[in-house]
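Open question from group meeting: does this chain pack into something compact, or does most of it stay loose? Before anyone orders reagents, we agreed to write out a predicted structure and look at it together. Recording both the input and the output here so the notebook holds the full record.
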Amino acid sequence: MGDSTALSVYLRERRLAAGLARTELAVRTQLAPLLISQIESGALVPNPAMLQRLFDSLDVPLWYRKPILTLGLPAVEPGIAPSTPSAEDLADLASLTHPACLARFPTMDMLAANADYQRFFPGLGAGVNMLEWMFLNPVAKKVYLDWHTEAQLLVHAFRMLAPLAPAQRIAAITEQCCASPDWDPVWTSEIRPQDIARRHLRVRERSTGLERRMMLRIYDPAFPSRPWWLYRLIPAR
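Structure tokens returned:
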């Protein structure tokens, strides 16, 4: 067996979650069973055409494919990425004029949030997990006008991408969220494909009680690379 990458682990876990034997996946993808085995062991990094077949056969939504590759393949740039935002990162975040935060993906652990974000989402700041806040903080259902859909989207991303994160962290988040009676129904519910790539979400501004329609934008820092993503909410026109 080769040195498994997060991508090889992810593909194996997705196949098992789909209830497919390697031979069945080989038939679906028209790839030799030996290639499937080599990819899952990390001995072979699939080329783009192979990945396309694998993602299609494993029903991986288009929305998640780039994040899977970003998180799943070994980094090629030198140096060690910082584990927490620097003073410059925090200053950049604070300078943004709309709600924004820095969070790890796919665990959705918050690293920082600007003042506007914390005003919109009370209690959701550095050191808090988005999923735990969504399911355990009563404020979440008052803020999100479509709470069930937003909760489904978070859980769906968490469930689809969990193999790319440390197993202990995934287990800890799941254990906390299981305390909510909403967790199991949302976990087992199906989400509509059109909701995954939604353009807008609706929130109620706590200070005014007004409904706000916001566009969600997620950015992956590239220069320099960082192990977190920037989430921004921009008022919709």
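Observations to bring back to the group:
The domain at 87-235 is CATH 3.30.450.180 (Beta-Lactamase).
The chain has two domains: 6-60, 87-235.
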